Amino acid sequence: MPKFCIILLAAGASSRMESPKPLLPWGDVTLIEDRILRFQKTGYPLLVVLGAHAERILPIVQKYPIKTVVNPHWKEGMGRSIAFAAKTLKNTEPLDGILITTVDQPLVDEQHIQAMIKTFEPEQQQIIVSVSSDQWKGVPVLFDPSYLDALGDLQGDLGAKEIVRLHQARVKPCMAGDKLVDMDTPESYHQLYQAIHQS
Predict the structure, then answer these.
(1) CA-to-CA separations, 25 to 60, 191, 199, in angstroms, rounded
(2) Domains and CATH numbers, the chain
(3) Cis link prior to 65 (omega < 30° from 0)?
C-alpha cells in the first residue's frame, strides 16, 4: 500500500469567525473531530498542525491515534504552518505523497481524498489540485515528496500556491464539485451547518 500522510491545518486564529473554528460544534462532535474521523477512514496517517488555541484543542484531539504538532510561528500565516509540518515529515519514514487540507472545509470527505490519491502517480513529481464546480483551484492539494524542501521553505500566508504556480506542467486536477466551500464567518458557519444537519 502506498504511503501517504494527510496534513490537517488547524493553526489559525479564526479572527473572522470570532471563535476557534476547530472547536465549533459539528453534529455530535467538534469540527476538528469531524475532520479527524473523516480522514481516518482513508487508512492513512494524519498529522494535525495546531497553533492558536492549541491549549484548548489538544485535550480534545489527544484521544485520537494521530500525530499532533504545535507550530510556534502560527501568527506568520498558513505558509509557516505548512513549512512546520513539512519539516516534521522530513524526519519520518519516506512517503509517496503529502496531502494538505484545512479544518474549515467541512464538506471535503474521505471520498474526495481517495479520489485525489487515485489520480496521483508516485515518482512523477506530480501535484494534484482540487477543483470546484466553479473552477476555483486549491486545497486539498496532494504533493509528491520531491516538494518537501520547497514546502519546508514556505513563509507568510500564501500557502503553497507559489509552488503550484511554478510547477504547472506537473499539476493535475481532481474535481471536487461543491465540496471546497470554506467557513470564515459566523454567518457562513450557521448557513452550512443548517444545510448539512437539518432534520
Answers:
(1) 12, 13, 16
(2) 4-197 (3.90.550.10)
(3) no
Whether residue 181 contacts residue 105, with contact meaning beta carbons closer than 8 Å, is answered with: yes
CA 73 to mean position of chain CA atoms:
18
User: In whole angstroms, what is the distance from residue 197 CA to residue 151 CA?
Assistant: 36
Grid cell in block for residue 137: 483551484
Are the C-beta atoms of residues 16 and 123 closer than 8 Å to each other?
Answer: no
Could you tell me the pTM of the whole model? 0.96
Q: What is the distance in angstroms between the CA of the first residue and the CA of the last residue of the chain?
A: 39
Strand ranges for the chain from DSSP E: 4-10, 25-26, 29-30, 46-50, 67-70, 97-102, 127-132, 137-143, 171-177
Q: What is the torsional sign of CA 158, 192, 38, 65? A: positive
Residue 64: C-alpha distances to residues 22, 37, 39, 60, 151 (Å): 15, 9, 12, 8, 26
pLDDT along the chain (199 residues), means of 10: 92 91 96 97 97 96 96 94 95 91 96 97 96 95 97 89 95 96 94 84
